[in-house]
Amino acid sequence: MPIAFEVDHTTQRVMVTATGDILIEHMVALVTELAHRRCLSYSQRFDARGAALIVSADEMRQLVPLVARLRDEHGQARTAFVADADVSFGMARMYATLAADSDTGFMVYRTLEEGDAWLGWEPIRSPQPRMF
Length: 132
Description:
Elements: E1 3-8, E2 13-18, E3 21-22, H1 24-36, E4 43-47, E5 52-53, H2 57-74, E6 79-82, H3 86-98, E7 106-109, H4 112-119
Parallel strand pairs: 2-4, 3-5, 4-6, 6-7
Antiparallel strand pairs: 1-2
Helix pairs in contact: 1-2, 2-3
């Protein structure tokens, strides 16, 4: 599957990484699995940089009621969808518009830094090299 994720139950965060072509089936499988694992209500960063969201407008419209139902059952959360490709960014913005009333915490960004800032996540800092 071109979508992998890591759950941190302590901080209630989900870090999703997508590679290659992302189809509607992958998106449905992801939200279903997160609901099954009881972590759909955790804040989520979806890193789609370098991935291609291959989803039609009709498929995106079909995703909205599924996520709405799952959000009703499991709770709202912030999701930062990060995409650098114009088509993926645009499709994610379409979802955000269509789901504005049901997935209120879904936002789309171009960089991880922007998404992490909106999520309220501290930036990951590299350790300072030590001089000997």
